[in-house]
Design a protein that fits this description.
- By secondary structure, the chain is mainly beta.
- Helices cover 0% and strands 50% of the residues.
- It has no helices and eleven strands.
- The chain starts with a strand and ends with a strand.
- The relative contact order is 0.32.
C-alpha cells in the first residue's frame, strides 16, 4: 500500500520561505511521477509543480515559476517543494501526489492521473 506523508507546512510572513517534504513508502519511488498540488479555501485544487522520474523534467504553475523549486531524492524516497518569497495568495493546503509511469521523462499536471495522495499540509502566509 503506497503512502505519502507530507511535512513542513506552517504559518509564515510574506517574503519568507518554507520547504515541504513528502516521503513515499510502500511502492517503488523511482517509478513514480511526483506532483505537488494545492487547494485554497473556496477554490479548486490545482497543480503547483510536478517532476518526472528523471528528476530533470519539471513543470510549474505560472504564479510560482521562479519562486518554487521541486526536487526529488530517490535515495530517500522523498520529493521536496522549496517555496521562496511566499505570498498571501500561496495560502492553501498542499498535497503530495504520485502516479506510476513507464516513461522516464513524463510528467503530468492532470489531477485525475494521480493515483496516490497524501493527507495534506497547511501553508498560511500572512501579509
Amino acid at each position: 500500500q503506497v503512502q505519502l506523508v507530507e511535512s513542513g507546512g506552517g504559518l509564515v510572513q510574506a517574503g519568507d520561505s518554507l520547504k515541504l517534504s513528502c516521503v513515499h513508502s510502500g511502492g517503488t519511488f523511482v517509478l513514480a511521477v511526483m506532483g505537488w498540488f494545492r487547494q485554497a479555501p473556496g477554490k479548486d485544487r490545482e497543480a503547483v509543480a510536478t517532476i518526472a522520474r528523471s528528476g530533470t523534467h519539471t513543470n510549474y504553475e505560472d504564479s510560482v515559476t521562479g519562486r518554487f523549486i521541486i526536487t526529488r531524492d530517490n535515495a530517500k524516497n522523498t520529493v521536496y517543494l522549496q517555496m521562496l518569497n511566499l505570498k498571501p495568495e500561496d495560502t492553501a493546503v498542499y498535497y503530495c501526489a504520485a502516479l506510476y509511469s513507464a516513461h522516464f521523462d513524463y510528467t503530468s499536471t492532470t489531477e485525475a492521473e494521480y493515483v496516490y495522495w497524501g493527507q495534506g499540509t497547511q501553508v498560511t502566509v500572512s501579509s
